[in-house]
Amino acid sequence: MSVTTMLAPSARNSTSSTSSSFVPVTRQNTVGSDGAPRSVRASKRYSVTALYLSMSAQDKDMEIEDELARVQKTLRDLKSRISSQSKKNFVLEKDVRYLDSRIALLIQNRMALEEQNEVASHFDESSELQEGTFPDDRKTQQYGNLFFLLQSEPRHIAALCRLVSMAEIDSLLQTVMFTIYGNQYESREEHLLLTMFQSVLSAQFDTTPEYSSLLRANTPVSRMMTTYTRRGPGQSYLKVVLAKQINNLIELKDLNLEINPLKVYERMVKNVEEDTGTLPANMPRSVSAEEAAENPQVQAIIEPRLTMLMELANTFLSTIIDNINETPYGIRWICKQIRSLTKRKYPDAKDNVICTLIGGFFFLRFLNPAIVTPRSYMLIDNIPSEHPRRTLTLIAKMLQNLANKPSYSKEPYMAKLSPFVTNNKNRISKFLNELCEVGDFYESLEMDNYVALSKKDLELNITLNEVYATHNLLEKHAKELLQGRDTEHLTILLQELGPAPPQVPRKENRAIILPLFSRWESALDDLSAALDITQEDVYFMEAKSIFVQLLRTLPPISAAVRRPLNLQKIADVAATTKDIGTFRKGMRGIELLNQLKELGVISEADGYQILREEVEQELVHLGSLKEKVTEESLKLDEVYKTIRDHNAYLVSQLETYKSYLHNVRSQSEGKQRGKQQKQHVLGPYKFTHQQLEKEGVIQKSNVPDNRRANIFFTITSPTPGTFVISLHYKGRNRGLLELDLKLDDLLEMQQNNHDELDLEYVQFNVPKVLALLNKRFARKKW
């Protein structure tokens, strides 16, 4: 494939803002050295410019320090931190999911002491990874070859992803999504990852006879797609598009929009019983779903709720459609592949079926999980109360029915919302098709790979266990992996590596820097031959790149940078500076001007007009780029803060589980030894009403404002996992009330999404209470 074709705009938009993208310039015919007229292709210039600017970023002898360079550096650093933090959160979430299931058994007293010890060992090993080096230089080189091959030829990972079991997929995804392609904002890695997705999806379509079952089952492929949406760009989209709508809705704590007739009837019975003490003869305590649906009072309650639900769902839908341009390029590109593969594999599939498959990914795998559990996606701070939580679930169901072929067999009451589907069907089809309208990236990827081959510092930040686990999976599935075409290099590398080492204990695991390089290809010296372009084009693009860099480096007050630009003067001034980098660029600029004159590409008579115009246009572009980079930095800064907050929550959750496990194990061991261990009382610790309110522990207070200054609380822990909270009024010896709490109860409340702890005068926030207790009462053994 030639790299001389112009990059698609959408592919340009998908790349990091730190790399310049360029507007093609209409070129005049010029005269070649042989005197014949020649038309210089703008598309060719365009591609090589992108290549040269990618490579110029590697120059160490010249640092550009203008405002654009500074904001670009800030953005690069921010993107790097988001990528790193996303990986840490993924690992923590995996730990929390595992411990959630184990702690649930503890709460229900169904876990044996041996299992408790197994969970405890998980905690003991889950400390922050230390940095280290690979124990063997020869293995470092072999693994560097292997992971370069895996990264640059995604078909191998794609094949592996199709072969692994559900038990293995999370570990593999961690390595693939957050390590091998962990730089989520770097165009080469992102495009290689998407290439892998294309291969995986293509195989999935090939092996699925009925398109109705595509992408629906919980398979390694569907898990891959979900994990992809959880990366930085997907999180940024959710924050921008959904956070405000969801936060507005959850503020309406008392708005009950339940439309399930049976639940509405049960609530109605409960209210009547509470108000009157008895039930009328015509209102039995329990009825069937059909009887509830036919009840006139139930119908009267549901009718206005239907209208309001459809209005709310419409606001969500409008926000999603209006923000189509915020959708990450990668997610839109996957939608495009789903449409393309469906048309190729199932020629008879109608447009509405294709839209159903696209909607299945975009809504089922991406948007709806965030709407149903917004706290897990860092869109809200606390678990929503009962009514808003149910409303969000209903809205997600409505959006899913709109994107898919609606089925009301399991929940007939949802059929009442069918007007929402009917009224928006054309609208959603248009949106889903527009989602797919993005350009491809293959030619920019080809250039990126050429640049990667000429780099000396390609590397992965990876752990020993990630290296060994990937090696183990490749070895385990080698028979299937090495049957395909073009697997000779992978075969050689696996044979040289030998058997995969076993996983090391987590406390011995180390984060290492693994240098990547190709075993079979060397750096490119002759770019013109490698990229199928003329030497004239190479010189022209290099000259353009150098003059843009010089203009960003020379002082703004310098006479050389005044308009109209005098390229000869700029190069002469640069060649007389004391800065070695600027001097070299100036000398190279003079040399390139002379070479381009000799080739007849530019003319001194018109002041090198063709080259000057392109340099000036690039400077205009860079001016607008600064504003875009600054705007993107502000958005991503908010995303990074959210990801950090979520990390703190996950760490707190793990610490809470650790303290609970310690309590249970202490009690179990005490019973087994037939004696009660003596425990030291902790506390009391004193907290003012204002302090707890400020920290969010008190989420609602019935204490009059003028008395809050006189209210304080004390918390004591007489034994591990047991707490006594007392509410006091200044001047009184005894507390107004006292509450005994067990850590079990708080964990169970949190697990059941019961967010409020009622203390009569105040309502505490359960997660915040857990965090407070964890912070103040952590015993040394925890």
UniProtKB/TrEMBL annotation:
Pfam families: RasGAP (PF00616), RasGAP_C (PF03836). Keywords: Coiled coil. GO terms for molecular function: GTPase activator activity. The keyword Glycosyltransferase does not apply. Residues 1-13, 22-32 have a biased composition (Polar residues). SUPFAM superfamilies: GTPase activation domain, GAP (SSF48350), RGC domain-like (SSF143885). One of its GO terms (cellular component) is cell cortex. GO terms for biological process: negative regulation of Ras protein signal transduction; signal transduction. Residues 61-88 form a coiled coil. Residues 1-39 are annotated as: Disordered. Residues 188-404 form the Ras-GAP domain. PROSITE patterns: RAS_GTPASE_ACTIV_1, RAS_GTPASE_ACTIV_2. InterPro entries: RasGAP_C (IPR000593), RasGAP_CS (IPR023152), RasGAP_dom (IPR001936), Rho_GTPase_activation_prot (IPR008936). PANTHER family: GTPASE-ACTIVATING PROTEIN, RAS GTPASE-ACTIVATING PROTEIN WITH IQ MOTIF. This is Ras-GAP domain-containing protein. It comes from Tuber aestivum (summer truffle).
